[in-house]
Amino acid sequence: MKQSVEKERVPGGASSAVHPVSAALLRWYDAHGRELPWRGTRAPYAIWLSEVILQQTRIEQGCPYWERFMAHYPTVEALAAATEDQVLRLWQGLGYYSRGRNLLVAARQVVAQGGFPRTVAGLKALKGVGDYTAAAIASMAFDVPVAVVDGNVYRVLARHQGIDTPIDSTQGKHLFAALAQEWLPPSQPAAFNQAMMDFGATWCTPRAPRCTDCPIADTCVARHEGTIASLPVKAGKTRVRTRQFHYVYVRCGTATALRRRPAGDIWQGLWEPLLVEGDRALLQQAVRSIAGKGNAQLVLLRQGVRHVLTHQLIVAHFHLLDCGSFTPQLPSGYQWVEEADLDRHAKPRLVERLLALLPR
Ligand code: SF4
Fold this sequence. Notes:
Helix content is 41%, strand content 16%. The protein has 14 helices and nine strands. Strand 3 and strand 4 form a beta hairpin.
């Protein structure tokens, strides 16, 4: 269902067409918008940081991270001067660590060019900044009239307009982006984008939308046609790959073996104990080759720990190999680290779970 467009007065005296649905959502936002720590700011650094942290992260989980980053690195210059290890250490627990690495690269890009770019195209040239993040920063920091389209916006548009074109198809992406842009009042891009995202996140929610007190219910196609539960439509089901990880915590006196995870796989740059990926035969072979004729015993601490990622399911098995005073030959890439220094190394959450099981 298409809405008519009416004329409204906008600040500054100019006349601009404001979609009636947009006007209703802006009024709703005034009364019900979320209180978020970065809402009062127009600073591109604070906005960019919040957007990167909140990608694939719930807002309750992301807020403390944003506050911690702002406290450690109050400016983009301060962040750019950090090391990758320091940033990953602060990022630890958020997952999707490439975001943390990209954050640092982008901060250095910004500093090198003397400040944040003020256009969508300029922002998209920063590492890790895609269409969504660029639109969010451009509209909220610089008032560029560009609509953001995130999962919440897809849901509101699909339901209100009764659109069943898959949101993950090329056609769907173009269609929804054009529709969001059509609704965007050019004079209020920041407020409107925040209104759409907040409305989707708190009112038009996936499972329990508040249709009875919804400000745009009268014109909501999905409500009239009874299709709320089936919208929006997603076409592709992502195939999930299952991997078996045997983590062996090798203890040698007061030291343990760690390596930094290599490029081209999950958790790049984070630290982990000896990893054997595959079945138990591979594990035994690896243990034999490092322990040799020593009498170190492999102890199973826990098996079958499931760790779910977007496209992978890791089934992990945790082991301890206590070598006592015998120093085994480590496979290439691993190094000895004093156990007292473990906290200084950024690690995946799965490894933290192993560390919590270790006998002291
Ligand atoms: S009526 Fe319900 S489904 Fe439609 S926009 Fe409002 S909250 Fe969403």
